[in-house]
Structures are given as structure tokens and as C-alpha cells.
Amino acid sequence: MIMDGNVPAYAELYERYWETLFETAYWHLLDKAAAKDIVQEVFVYCWQKREQIQINESMAAVRDFFSGPIQMANSKR
Q1: What is the fold of 2-75?
Q2: MF terms per GO, please (predicted)?
Q3: 55-64: which pairs have CB atoms within 8 A and are 24 or more residues apart?
Q4: Which pTM was predicted?
Q5: Would residue 72 be called left, alpha or beta, if left means φ above 0 and alpha means ψ between -120 and 50 degrees?
């Protein structure tokens, strides 16, 4: 559904996983503002690449999927 541009499905994904992804980013950065910015950047990136990615229901898989872009965004700072 997200791959097809379904905005409500993407909003649900955001609501479901934002906090966990924020905690993961904060664990890497120890900076709340930077963690929020990076998580936002990751969600924008994923929306832009939505036709190319598959997101599983498993929280571990989602966290692992987002970990790479979080670390990449952090390295650009």
C-alpha cells in the first residue's frame, strides 16, 4: 500500500514507528533535536523511495531497515 502512495498507510507507519526510531537515533546521537531531525529525514527519504522498498510488519525488521539511513544521516552531520 505504501509503495502505491497510500498516504493514510504511510501516516500509520509513521505513528506506529516514530517513537522507536527516535529512541534508536537518540541512542546513536545523544542529542534530541538531531535525533528528531534525522528521523524526519529518514521518513522523507523512505517516502521518496517508497516504490523501491519493502517494509515488513516485524518491529525488528523496521528498526533494522531504518538503522542504515539513521547512521548515514548522522555521518553527514
Answers
A1: Rna Polymerase Sigma Factor; Chain: A (1.10.1740)
A2: DNA-binding transcription factor activity
A3: 55/2, 55/13, 59/17, 59/20, 62/17, 62/20, 63/17, 63/20, 63/21, 63/24
A4: 0.68
A5: alpha
